[in-house]
Amino acid sequence: MQTPVLYTATVLSVDRLAGDYYLGRFRLADPLEMKFAAGQYVIFHLPAPKLRHTMSIASAPSNAGEIEILQHTVAGGAGSAWFTGLQAGETVRFTGPFGKFTLEDTDRQKVFVATGSGIAPFRSMIIEELKGPRTIHDNQMTLYWGLRHETDVFWKDEFESLAKDHLNFRFLLTLSKPTDAWTGAVGRVTDHVTRETPHRAHSEFYLCGRRQMIVDTRALLIENGVPEDRIFTETFF
Length: 237
Fold this sequence. Notes:
This protein is α/β, with parallel strands linked by helices and about 240 residues long. It has two domains: about 5-100, Elongation Factor Tu (Ef-tu), domain 3, CATH 2.40.30; about 110-235, Rossmann fold. It has helices at about 80-85, 120-130, 155-165, 190-195, 210-225; strands at about 5-20, 20-30, 40-45, 50-55, 65-70, 90-100, 110-115, 140-145, 170-175, 185, 205-210, 230-235. Helix 4 (about 190-195) runs parallel beside helix 5 (about 210-225). The longest helix has 13 residues, at about 210-225. The two termini are about 25 Å apart.
């Protein structure tokens, strides 16, 4: 993997996707491209002295001249206020890439389990595997994503389109606190993973999001015969 370096980039846009979720698009200026592995992250340098903001890359490595960053804003958070206040044309600085939360080079089924903004590294991985210039294998891939409310939903159409176009990709979005109008899956994402994943013992699991989801899902997977060395995790908060 590439040694982390300092990058300068231009803000292309920062748009609200849904609820408290925002997507920032940045064009690299110096250096002009970044080689990274899907699942890695960068550390933004905020204007305040010594203040840093760690963010997973949500775009695929094949688009090396730009990166997309998903931000789940938190009231009173310095990083959230800085991110949502960015304007097109501004210059930002970040160091990267960092991280080892990347796909294993095996032919096993890949099962992704995310809550909230934990979807960011999986979007990078899935797009790169399905639409990039090369894939390591024609793996079966399944994405389970848990959100709370209908007002939190974004990227649903994108993942459903990928699932329609690629027979080796399956997508399930579940809401833990939906209204009666919601017609999709309901409940904790953990419950769907253990109940609806075939061939669990012969799959690899990638978990990203809330700490409690990761703890609960990991325990249930082990109880259901998944070897510990086939469970990979990245905690966001």
